[in-house]
Amino acid sequence: MSTHAIPLPEDESTAAWIRRALVLFTCTSVTFLYAMTVTIANVSLPQMQGALSATQDQIAWVVTSNIVATAVFTPLSGWLVSRLGWRRVCNGCVIGFGLASLACGLADSLDSLVLYRALQGAFGAPLVPVAQAIVLATYPKRLHGTVIAIFGVGSVVGPIVGPVVGGYLSEAYNWRWVFYMIVPFSLLALAGTWFFIHDREGQRARVRLDWTGFLTLAVSVACLQLMLDRGERADWFSSGEIIAYAALTGLALYIFIAHTLTAERPFLSPLLLRDRNFVIGIVLVTVFGMLNFTPMTLLPPMLQGVSGYPDSVIGFVLGARGSGTFVAFALMIWASRFDPRFMIGFGFLLQAVAGWQLAQLDVNLSTAHVFWPMALQGFGVGVMWVAITVVTFSTLKPEFVGEGSAIFHMVRNIGSSVHISLSITLALRMSRANYAEMSTLVNPYNEALHLPWVMGGWNIDSTRGLAALGKEIARQSAMIGYIDAFYFFIFTSLVVLPLLLLVRWKK
Fold it and tell me: How distant, in Å, are the alpha carbons of 64, 110, 125, 128 from that of 226?
């Protein structure tokens, strides 16, 4: 393969800026492709659950398997680029991503769908960090705030197009079409990477992969996710399975840390930890990942299971989040001159406010009651994303940007999968606890049940009446579980704010 040189940042010719703009457009398109698929399955989760005869915690694997695979394979981005170069990595990952998306639509069981979603995440994992590294290497540092805001538009438009179009397609046809619609977008992204992404001179090198570090990290992340997802169903540490997952997580993590600190060329260089802003940025983006997709996973089953909303309306509501993020990115192009510490703090506070609004919902919610909190949450995501990225890479040496970008996106994905699992576990557990507490009050000895203004249209004198009342209690209990999960979301939003005091920033 021939190697072409991307113009150096100091090259200010018109042709150079046109080439940079084409690279930025292509990288934004690749990010759009990945961002669309992260959220596109959420809108059809209830339909998939019924079609594949799955429980709520089982169908959540359609989302978490993709996120876990992304988290596991994201750190490979730097090694893949060093061996294959930008062009081959982007082309190969886009092709594999499109084929995996097609396979998801053709899946005939929950196990095969989870497998193909994991493959989709594995092929998509290098796309965002590699695209971000290309953008940062193509533009001078003085423009990083602006181009990251433009680059982030791809991650915003994706969550708008995915749920809205996917919701209409799944309602008009079935859930498989949310995956079929990804294929033409993959072809467009492939055209961009094929024509506009080229390698830099001397970029490719035969770098040996530290298999010990990679495998131990992968085992640790995968077992942690298995423990969190299977814990509630298997009764946590009363189960030998969960104990085994916990033990493997701890053992693999210990081996990874010990090997990283002693190996000559570890999988992830510990020299990155010498940069104070990078370390703080990694913590911030982990919490950012925790907040990013949790509402989008909780809302579809809540809206359909508690209030009976169709897929098209659910997609419209989830699209509100992307609209809010789009507005925030547009403002951040202009507001990139502001102190990023203020923008990060403001973004986390917006997350807490949105979580508070969602926690005030009841079973009689309307579309507007969910639309505006989701738009506000999306706006906060857009405000934080650019600022956290700028802070994290502001003082990092250029030779560490590729590896740092891989870690940056890896911990973001791990944070998302962990928080989604914990939130679903909390919602299910609190729902069962409240159902058990409320159902004990339905008995002939409860004098309040004999008062007509208490019972209304309900009665406990027939089997049909008891069944209807039991269904209503289950609906109310499920809503309380979701509300508790949103309070957990608020706590997560606020707990990280003191860390901003440690960020170093020179205007």
Answer: 10, 16, 19, 25
**Residue at 445 is within a domain:** no
Q: Which of 266, 284, 313 is the last residue of a domain?
A: 266
Nearby residues of 392 by Cβ (< 8 Å), 6 or more positions away:
277, 278, 280, 281, 282, 284, 285, 404, 408
Structure tokens at 382: 């857009």
Distance of alpha carbon 218 from alpha carbon 345, whole angstroms: 32
For 122, the enclosing helix (H) or strand (E) is helix 110-124
DSSP secondary structure of 134-183: HHHHHS-GGGHHHHHHHHTHHHHHHHHHHHHHHHHHHHHS-TTHHHHTHH
- Number of structural domains the chain divides into: 2
Nearest CA-CA partner of 6 in 29, 23, 27, 31? 23
Sign of the CA dihedral 376, 381, 386, 388? positive
Residue that the structure tokens 């399975």 belong to: 241
Number of Cα atoms under 13 Å in the Cβ half of residue 381: 30
| Domain contains 446 | no
Give the tens place of pLDDT for each residue, 75-100: 787 778 877 777 888 888 899 999 99
Q: Are residues 301 and 387 in the same domain?
A: yes
Best CA proximity match to 484, nearest among 418, 426, 415, 419: 426
CA distance linking residue 344 with residue 388, whole number of Å: 7
- CA–CA separation, 172 vs 265, rounded Å? 53
pLDDT under 70: residue ranges of the chain: 1-13, 38-39, 42, 56-57, 145, 152-160, 163, 199-207, 311, 333, 335-337, 402, 452-458, 506-507
Residue 231 covered by a domain = yes
What does pTM read for this prediction? 0.75
- What span, in angstroms and rounded, lies between the C-alpha atoms of 254 and 292? 28
Q: Look at residue 459 and tell me if it is in a domain.
A: no
CATH of the domain at 152: 1.20.1250.20
> Is residue 192 located within the same domain as residue 296?
yes
Domain with 300, as residue range(s), is: 14-209+267-437+474-502
Cβ-Cβ contacts under 8 Å for 191 (sequence gap 6 or more): none
**How many angstroms separate the Cα of 85 from the Cα of each of 5, 26, 197?**
12, 16, 10
Residues 148 and 254 in one domain: no
Per the structure block, which two tokens stand in for 148? Answer: 């990251």
Distance in angstroms (rounded) separating the CA atoms of residues 26 and 12? 20
End of a domain among 222, 248, 266?
Answer: 266
Amino acid at residue number 275: D
